[in-house]
Amino acid sequence: MDEKLNGTCVLNKWSISSDTHAFRYRPDIWKEFSGQMRNFSIEEISNSLIWHAAIGSLNDPFEVYAKSNRNELKELTQDEWFKLWVKCFAQHTLPYPYWRIFSSGTVREIFQDNILAEKEFMLRRFKEHDFFGEFIKEFRDTVAIASFTKKPDSRLMWGYYCNGMNGFCIIYNKERLINSCIRLDEVEYGDAGLEINAMDHAYSYRTKRDDTLLIKIPKFKHKEWHHESELRSLCLLEGGDVGLGKTLQLNECCIDGVIIGSKVCTATKAQLLELSGKLNFRLYYAKANLEKFAVDISDYPK
């Protein structure tokens, strides 16, 4: 059964629900480029594009908030110390160029005979070099996000993503997005950032490597953002797009409607009206209901 949208009966009337659709808030901003006025939010609709911004360029400084467990090595068992040493550190400390041909028993004896020095060396290297922190920094530059939501009538999002009703909310058909290779994943919210045993993830001294853990990182936010009910599309950046972002071309128009904010300028209204006829999507109207302290959505007035 479709999840009905509270307070937006007009959308329910046209079979629009958060199960079948995703909503994307866009600002109404016109800028001059090479002597021509452009509105990139409008162009996303007219050209069937979706802009994905590099994580590091987003307004939340805690995006992709994940860190390595800096106490990881202190929590190891004796056997785990040995396994990690063999996989990562032995080649840097053993004086033997062909130590890998030694029997496992011989290698373990060498480790046990020098265990205090080896542990000290491993702890020092781990403390001095946070390779996971460097990975996260690179990750923020090379992974991009397009944000959607389940809520088309959010007071907060109409406020800060549409500049106080000066913008619009695009209604995307999820099935058609999938046909255009745009997969939406729900954001998970929690009290604290993800903490990862980075050495175990890299060298599997305790558990088998599971890369789904890394995929979870860009889909996690602090619970203070829970009100957004966010859905995310992810893509990788290469070349000149690194650190910035890129637009992905859709195979078809995936839009079933656009909700126009009450303060959208005349030029934008005219563009959206023209596009609704050309691309066959419905228009709706959003305004602030001061008595109910809510955002009312209705059919767009003729």
Characterize the structure shown.
The mean pLDDT is 89. The longest helix has 16 residues, at 78-93. The protein starts with 8 loop residues before the first helix and ends with a strand. It folds into 2 domains: 9-60 and 147-193 and 220-299, no CATH class; 71-129, no CATH class. The strands form 5 sheets. A 5-stranded mixed beta sheet has the order 1-7-14-15-16. It has 11 helices and 16 strands. The chain has 302 residues and is α+β, with helices and mostly antiparallel strands. A hairpin with a 2-residue loop joins strand 2 and strand 3.
Write the layout of secondary structure elements.
Blueprint: H1 9-13, E1 21-27, E2 31-33, E3 36-38, H2 40-46, E4 49-54, E5 66-68, H3 78-93, H4 104-113, H5 115-128, H6 131-142, E6 143-149, H7 155-160, E7 167-173, H8 174-179, E8 185-186, E9 188-190, E10 194-196, H9 198-203, H10 212-216, E11 220-222, E12 230-236, E13 245-249, E14 255-261, H11 266-279, E15 282-289, E16 294-299
Parallel strand pairs: 5-10, 9-11, 14-15
Antiparallel strand pairs: 1-7, 2-3, 4-6, 4-13, 6-12, 7-14, 8-12, 15-16
Q: Which outline best applies?
A: elongated
DSSP summary: helix tally: 11
Helix content: 25-40%
Tell me the domain tally: 2
Tell me how many strands there are. 16
Q: For the CA atoms, what is the radius of gyration?
A: 26 Å
Q: What's the order of the H and E elements?
A: HEEEHEEHHHHEHEHEEEHHEEEEHEE
Characterize the biggest β-sheet: 5 strands, mixed
Q: Unreliable runs, pLDDT <50, ≥5 residues?
A: none
What is the overall pLDDT average? 89
Beta fraction of the residues?
25-35%
Based on secondary structure, the structural category is alpha+beta
Q: Separation of termini?
A: 32 Å
> What strand order characterises the main sheet?
1-7-14-15-16
